Amino acid sequence: MDCLTIMAHLPRVIPKTFLAYPNFPGEVKIKIWTEFFLDPDQVRIVVMDQSTREIIPSKPLASSKYTLDSSSWAAFKSIYPVRVPVYHNYSKAKFLDEDSNGNVENAANQSANTGTDDEEIGFIRLGFDHDIFLVKGMKRSIYGLDGWDEKWVVAAKSKTHPLSLEHCKLMRNLMEVIRLSPDIGDTLPVIRRKAKTNKHLYKKSVFSGVETCRHIYCDWDRNGTSGTEGDGNEVGFLERDLVILSGSHVFIHWCYCMVLFDQKMLGVGP
Questions:
Q1: What is the pLDDT confidence band of residue 220, given thresholds at 50, 70 and 90?
Q2: Helix orientation angle between 70-79 and 26-37, rounded to the nearest 10 degrees
């Protein structure tokens, strides 16, 4: 059972925290949790399919770790007020069956569309003022129908409804993945030249409320994490990092090729 499924079956009685301070008023507890959730180390990256605007569910977005008690859950919901249901995407019974012509791949592609929207397996909560929405450079198909790892099985086997235009207009912080040709690489001089152009992929008419936009510049062959296979720190790709790591850890792993564009650079706001 993955963490998104667990969210659909939360116990009615949530355990209490602050055991050393049982007389803390509820308002104080909520204030403490709110400060914790707003800490920069708790930043979340919401990965979206650039074509459909569906969210690609991931374990860092699961809310179960925030339901430690009623005060933590109340604080979390105040910061992330929008509830987005998550549904099964694949029919497990038919997932790798052969189709009528004996073609396994076609059968998998067909079963990808057999998930029913009435089978809610969990939910994620969004905060348009605080979350960072990766809106360009990613597709759900990246996670594939075969060879997917348990680390990103949630992304491969779950889906949401597309976010509406009204939702997009509320997003304050965006992110884009800018793919670079392996011929030129993603060295610092190349990234600086690209960043100076101040060009973005998102449509301003759709994301009209944007205040910041981060670019991750990487060539198609670049690995996202250090290490070599077999040493316990396997080489990974950006796509993998985005669905298994927290936002702060993505920043650390990709700081060498990330550029932040603020309001002044985007030509918006005061």
A1: low
A2: 50
